[in-house]
Amino acid sequence: MSGKFKEFHDELRSVASDLLAKDAAVDWPLLAEAGWTGLEAPENLGGAGAGFGEVAVVLQEMGRAATRSAYIGGTVLSVGTLIALQPSATRDALLSDVATGAVRTAVALSRDGQDVDPSAPFRIESSSAGLRITGRSEFVPDADGADRLLLLANAADVPVVVVATAQASGLSVTPQPVVDETRRLSVVVADGVMVDESVWRFDGDPGTRVRRLLDRAAVAVACDSVGLAEAMLSATVSYAAVRHQFGRPIGSFQAVKHACADMLVRISVARQLVSAAVEAIADDRTDAATAASMAKSYATAAAVDVVGKAMQLHGGIGYTWESGIHVYLKRAALNRSLFGSPAAHRKQLAQRYSQGT
Amino acid sequence: MTPTADLDEFRATVRAWCDEHVPSDWRRAQTDVDDEQFVDFQKWWFQELRAAGFAVPHWPREWGGGMSVAEQIILYRELAAHDAPRLVLAFVGIHHAASTLLAAGTQEQLQRHLPAILGGEIWVQGFSEPEAGSDLASLRTSARRDGDSYVINGQKLWASGGMHADWCLLLARTDPDAAKRKGISYFLLDMSTAGVDVRPIRNAIGESHFCEIFLNDVKIPAANLVGAENAGWQVAQATLGAERGLTMLELAERLGHAGFRWLVEACRRGRLIEDAVVQDKLAQFDIEITGLRGLCRDLVERSEAGTAGAADASVVKLFYSELLQRLTDFGAEIGGLAAHTQLTKPISSGWESGSWVLDFIGSWEWTIPGGSSEIQRTIIGERGLGLPREPSAVG
Fold first, then answer.
1. Annotated catalytic sites of B, by residue?
2. pLDDT along chain B (395 residues), means of 10
3. Shortest CB distance from B318 goes to which of A265, A275, A297?
4. CA–CA separation, B37 vs B26, rounded Å?
């Protein structure tokens, strides 16, 4: 990373960290006000013209603070989807509204929220009344409360995006409560919803575009996991320095110290893999899928181990509701499953070995 | 920073050189060889690299190096990709000896030794002792001033390559009354001096490259003291982490190229590659090696920029050691009984040679020496994370 970018990232990180420390939940208007909804959108459409690298900084800070917000669904996936579509007046208008925060959208990308194979959850069929869209997508982030939904659908086997208003007849968004209370996931069902606007096509090869969106979703979650793992290591180190037993700070015992060292090693490796994947997504590189699977697999699994160890090293207090460590453990566990388990991503990677590298 | 186009050109140059100069059959030719053949081969390969300007890329330009960090990364990557032999014998000389002298040596010491190292002078590290392993600062070998010389008495252990060495980097106690880290001095010892006795120790895989060095009234001229008297601990510490980045980068690149490739090939034999559990393990190693390569590159770049953290090198060493152990363990497991019939491995290869059982047993040479994994965890906890020290720790 060049010096200029690093400086910008450091500043963004520090601003984000201050803002997110104030409250566990960050409402949509505040996200827009902070300028985070428009980071990736082009400047002529009301965005900041920055890249996924900057979005990744915000995601990591949100993980660190275990922030409840609609950022992943409303911004990271929505803007990612819209900029992958062919430009048009209506596309530009919606991208601009999403960037400024005037409109909140969510993206229904996969059937079950964890499939690593791109397969559109919806299909478009023609009827006597016109085109209709049907299908079901589970565990859609931030769909509840969105103004419009971007539905990934097959139109004669070509993936396209259909934009539906939340109130459209035949469309339902039903919250799916999960153990992790910091994320809002929903089932989106379309039952013959009339496609009143034109179908939006991907810019470039649709298969590659969809693949990249899934990669982006996986890496976004991996960024979050790095942030929350870092937060828990830091909390554990602070606690181990002040908590005394047997007349010494517990951090002076090798059993505790060495466990903390292992946490740092895992986080250090995760950071490398995640920053490589963020770069690959930002530059839209052909190896982005590989880098994304590596980052998602390693970082989200590492975060569960690190937070689990944090709970262990905090002792009894760590297991209480009040300590809040459970919030991180639940979020880390959800991150591990969302957009493809570590095992599913490793399976993707392993295809390369049997085919000959 | 070197422009990208220049780096591309440099990469092409290194590739062309490797295609022409890396011997294709060295693994077979260097299996089951005697000591003399091993030393000859190592010295020959070192001079090949030297002639190309690739032997000491990390040294300052005036001493024959001067490559940018970006170029060094490319060089090590290409050498690994072409499965070039490792510089086993020259290792201590080009890394530890050179970085110590460059940091703390006199002009005379630099003039005497750096050109000689390029000419093939072999070095050994004389740090550990029977009673000073993990607790290195408790070393007992004594150095008593006697006119223009010091007289050394004691015993060094685990001196890798000691029987081939011309010179030794020696830590000895000059002040027995000072706190243990404050009474140590750093010396350059000519191994041909009277009273130096080297005895190889056979290691767990049957090789004898570790040595004991017995020092009996050995005289070292005072001019061979590096840094001030009693400042040897600081001299040693200053250079321990500094060179770790590049040496680890080379090993990580080797693990990422030949090491992983052999593992995949081993899995393809016997059709294990179609097994989901095997695929999962391979992918996990692939991911961890990729992470390791990133860590090493990052460490090299930050060491160069002066922004490396106090425990960054320990993070890399610990992760590499344990990854190597798990990976060779898996190699030994999937290699089955056939892997147990490979009774030798080529010297000059990396720590993963494809003789998996020997590689696995040999991996403890990473988790124990150079600061064991337990010591690394303590360093990471205390210097990296700022956790409180052991109450009983002294010095």
1. 243
2. 83 96 89 89 96 95 93 94 92 94 96 96 94 90 96 94 94 95 97 96 86 96 97 85 79 91 88 91 97 94 89 95 96 91 82 90 91 94 95 58
3. A265
4. 12
Determine, for residues B388 and A346 on separate chains, whether the beta-carbon distance falls below 8 Å.
no
**Residues of the domain holding A173:** 105-201
Residues of chain B with CATH 2.40.110.10: 123-229
Interface confidence (ipTM) of the complex: 0.90
CB contact under 8 A, B264 and A357: yes
For CA atoms B101, B105, B107, B112, the dihedral sign is: negative
Q: How far apart are CA B278 and CA A49, in angstroms?
A: 44
CB atoms within 10 A of CB B40: 12
pLDDT tens for each residue of B184-240: 999 999 999 999 999 999 988 888 888 999 999 999 999 999 999 999 999 998 766
Cβ pair A350:B280 closer than 8 A: yes
From B84, B89, B85, B118, select the one nearest B101 (Cα to Cα).
B118
Q: Tell me if the domain spanning B241-384 has CATH number 3.40.190.10.
A: no
The nearest CA of chain B is from the CA of A165 a distance in Å of 41
Two structure tokens written together for B31 = 């299996």
Q: Which of B292, B385, B391 sits opposite A252 (nearest CB)?
A: B391
By CA distance, what is A246's nearest residue in B?
A: B391
Question: In the predicted model, what is the mean pLDDT of chain B?
Answer: 92
Query: Do residues A178 and A305 share a domain?
Result: no
Same domain, A222 and A335: yes
CB-based contact (8 Å) between B274 and chain A? yes
Overall pTM surpassing 0.90 (yes/no): yes
Which token pair is B63? 């001493």
Closest residue in B to A274 (Cα–Cα): B291
| Residues of chain A positioned with their CB less than 8 A from the CB of B299 | none
The rounded distance, in Å, linking the Cα atoms of B251 and B302 is 18
Note the pLDDT of residue B30. Answer: 85
Q: Which parts of chain A have pLDDT scores under 70?
A: 1-4, 197, 355-357
Contacts of B353 (CB under 8 A, 6+ apart): B27, B345, B346, B359
DSSP string for B21-81: HS-TTHHHHTTT--HHHHHHHHHHHHHHHHHHT-SSTTS-GGGT----HHHHHHHHHHHHH
Does one domain contain both A226 and A308? yes
